[in-house]
From TrEMBL:
One of its GO terms (biological process) is transmembrane transport. The lineage of its organism: Bacteria, Pseudomonadati, Bacteroidota, Bacteroidia, Marinilabiliales. This is Outer membrane transport energization protein TonB. The chain crosses the membrane at residues 6-25, 37-56, 100-126, 182-204, 230-251, 272-290. One of its GO terms (molecular function) is energy transducer activity.
Length: 528
């Protein structure tokens, strides 16, 4: 779901950027045919560029010296004991689901609007039948007074025009049909269903329709019709109203600017250079949507020789890494257990890694439970044989342990931080790619001070006693969100714990490969 939301946001940014180029540099020029191609082409680029980003390679250097699993905890939290817990099984309705529901509701409404308008026109064609007039397919109806074209069919109302007006009306609509303006309309109408929330998509729609009318006006006058008579015909249609969004209407965007455009001097050809303003916009989008391909630094000759000595055969692992919702998890670190060989999953969550025979691999991601795939350690096969594996990274809840004894005598004194936990006994020195865990402003000591002061304040002011555990997420912006009470002695303790979490200042968010990611924490509190 996050991938879809990111795509809509990125594509919307491209739509905004290209429309600004059109509005600032092209809308008053008489290159109507070129403007048509720009409007449609820039929309295509805006929706396609986020799907096919430019790739660039990033070389990851192995850190000096071997590290243990304890090194995966950020330095800020070296003094805070860490434990893993299971998240509540019940699913909750979060902000992402709310946004998705709002978006789908809007898209459904505008899709229904488009289908309804199309159904109305099809009903008119069935009811009044399509006839031939001056070599064109025409539907004479009594529902709409304003002439308009739909695909290659012209809709007119005999009650609202005279026979003398027909040549200009049919000539106007014939240009729309001959130049296939219906394709532009169908394309932009479908995009308004998808990007209905973006006001610039509606500006694009108006610009495309207005440019169609410029082209049709130019086509009518090129056939020898007089400017004055044709303008008078358009003015007579001012009282008509545009009803169907997917059609070309005779009086659309009828203003002094449209009337002036008919007699405006043709823009000099050298002003075509204005279209080059699209190039900086294109370059900016390519830069914004570019995606890195991470690659581990190649081993030197000594390291390669060491590996070849320890394992004569290598197996190729073709893996897919997903999160709890089965969405791809790009940027996941994958390394050989006890070694320095590794790689990173790509945008689709896939990776390929060659590992020595009978070794395990380790997958890690900030805020997710580390996976050690010992199954790889029992595999034996032909040299270079490929094994396909899928890994699901589950959320990890980081428990924050606080000091139980306070050395301060009042709220103005500084609280002593809890003693650091002893390093876990282990003879196996392992290399893990270290990423950044969230950082509370001021570190663990500041976090302890904040919690204890809040506990004392609430216990004194509201006479709260008891224990509670509060689960919260430090999101990609560093904000404390998704606050839940998972354990409580009483309602008062639960409300106090919720208050402590909700009043926390913003953290420095955790990062995986330089990209901010959400991380979950569990905080126990006790009111005395």
């Amino acid at each position: 779901m996050e991938t879809s939301l990111f795509y809509l946001v990125n594509a919307s940014g491209g739509i905004v950027l290209f429309y600004l180029v059109y509005w600032l540099f092209l809308r008053n020029e008489t290159f109507h045919a070129a403007n048509r191609w720009f409007l449609v082409g820039s929309l295509l680029l805006a929706i396609l560029l986020p799907l096919v980003p430019v790739r660039y390679e990033v070389l990851i250097e192995a850190s000096e010296g071997a590290k243990t699993g304890a090194h995966t905890i950020a330095d800020t939290f070296k003094n805070i004991p860490v434990f893993k817990g299971a998240e509540e099984s019940a699913t909750t309705f979060g902000w992402q689901q709310a946004i998705l529901l709002i978006y789908l509701t809007g898209a459904a409404i505008f899709l229904l609007r488009l289908l309804t308008q199309t159904a109305v026109l099809i009903h008119l064609m069935i009811k009044y039948r399509v006839t031939s007039l001056n070599g064109m397919r025409v539907v004479e109806n009594e529902k709409y007074g304003l002439p308009f074209s739909f695909f290659n069919i012209v809709f007119i109302n005999p009650k609202f025009h005279t026979q003398d007006d027909l040549p200009e009306i049919l000539a106007h609509e014939k240009v729309h049909i001959r130049e296939h303006h219906w394709f532009d309309l169908l394309f932009i109408e479908l995009l308004t269903v998808i990007f209905w929330f973006n006001p610039f998509i509606w500006m694009f729609e108006r610009a495309i329709k207005q440019n169609h009318e410029y082209l049709a006006d130019k086509g009518v006058l090129a056939q020898g019709h007089t400017v004055g008579r044709y303008q008078a015909l358009l003015v007579n249609q001012l009282m008509g109203m545009q009803i169907i969004g997917i059609t070309n209407n005779l009086n659309f965007a009828l203003s002094t600017n449209r009337l002036k455009m008919m007699t405006k001097k043709k823009t000099s050809a050298h002003r075509l250079i204005r279209f080059t303003w699209a190039l900086p916009a294109l370059a900016l989008l390519l830069f914004a949507f570019a995606e890195p391909n991470y690659r581990m630094q190649e081993l030197n000759e000594t390291e390669i020789a060491d590996q070849e000595t320890s394992a004569t055969k290598t197996l190729k692992i073709s893996g897919l890494v997903v999160d709890e919702n089965d969405e791809p998890l790009p940027g996941t670190s994958v390394v050989v257990k006890g070694g320095t060989t590794g790689c990173v999953s790509d945008l689709q969550g896939r990776f390929t890694l060659e590992v020595p025979e009978k070794t395990a691999i380790v997958l890690s991601f900030v805020g997710k439970k580390t996976i050690i795939d010992d199954y790889m350690g029992i595999l034996s096969g032909k040299d270079g044989e490929v094994y396909k594996r899928t890994y699901k990274m589950e959320d990890e809840i980081i428990g924050i342990g606080l000091a139980t004894e306070l050395l301060a005598v009042n709220d103005n004194d500084k609280m002593a931080p809890p003693p650091p936990p002893p390093p876990p006994p282990s003879n196996d020195e392992m290399f893990y790619i270290v990423e950044d865990m969230p950082n509370y402003p001021g570190g663990s000591e500041a976090l302890n001070n904040f919690v204890y002061k809040m506990q004392n304040k609430l216990a004194s002011a509201k006479n709260i006693k008891g224990k509670a555990k509060v689960l919260f997420t430090v999101n990609a912006k560093g904000e404390v969100s998704d606050i839940k009470i998972v354990e409580q002695d009483n309602d008062a303790a639960a409300k106090g714990a919720y208050t402590i979490a909700s009043e926390m200042p913003d953290w420095v968010p955790g990062k995986q490969r330089g990209k901010a990611v959400p991380v979950k924490y569990m905080l126990p509190v006790e009111f005395k």
